[in-house]
Amino acid sequence: MGYLCPIFVLVLSSFTTQFALSNDMPSAYEVLQEYDFPIGLLPKGVTGYKLNRDTGEFSAYLNATCKFSIESYQLEYKSTITGVISRGRLSNLKGVRVLILFLWINIVEVVHDGEELEFSVGIASANFPIDNFGECPQCGCGFECNLLDGGNFVSSFQVER
């Protein structure tokens, strides 16, 4: 019985160290900034992420599918977004779509080029000023949340904790 106490203390201290390290881990938004992207590429409410810094492969997680409109575009983020990140380039994206005319088309790449972000759907691309992405859109209402119900809008697509 005397040996269990030191083992328990060792396991507990190991758990505490891992917990402390995980709290020091940068957020998904901070990781975007490390790779020269604005935080507004991801909506509010990312619950976690995985990143292999050697290969750039990443996954970002939301509680549920997230939809919102920005200007004339309807966007949809699946609950899991995957791809490869490198400085100024997000490639092999999966889980982000845009409604063009009547078709949902996958955004497959985002490139930071000077003061613009280039969004590619494979056969076509569109450029937008990087300043448009300085804040994170919110599921359900995008950047217009403060205009709805005095800012107390509750998204039907995702409930944030």
Write structural notes for this entry:
- The chain is an alpha+beta fold.
- It has a single domain, classed as at5g01610, DUF538 DOMAIN.
- The chain is 17% helix and 37% strand.
- The protein has two helices and nine strands, in the order H-H-E-E-E-E-E-E-E-E-E.
- The protein has helices spanning 4-24, 28-34; strands at residues 48-51, 57-61, 66-70, 73-86, 89-100, 103-106, 109-113, 116-120, 125-129.
- Strands 1, 2, 3, 4, 5, 6, 7, 8 and 9 form a nine-stranded antiparallel β-sheet that branches.
- Strand 4 (73-86) and strand 5 (89-100) form a beta hairpin.
- Keywords: Signal.
- Residues 1-22 form the signal peptide.
Briefly say what this structure is.
The protein contains 2 helices and 9 strands, in the order ααβββββββββ.
Largest sheet: 9 strands, antiparallel
Strand content: 35-45%
Helix content: 10-25%
Give the topology string: H per helix, E per strand.
Answer: HHEEEEEEEEE
Radius of gyration: 19 Å
Which whole number gives the mean pLDDT? Answer: 81
Give the number of DSSP strands.
Answer: 9
Q: How many individual domains?
A: 1
CATH architectural name? Roll
CATH topology: at5g01610, DUF538 DOMAIN
Signal peptide: 1-22
Pfam family, one: DUF538
Keywords: Signal
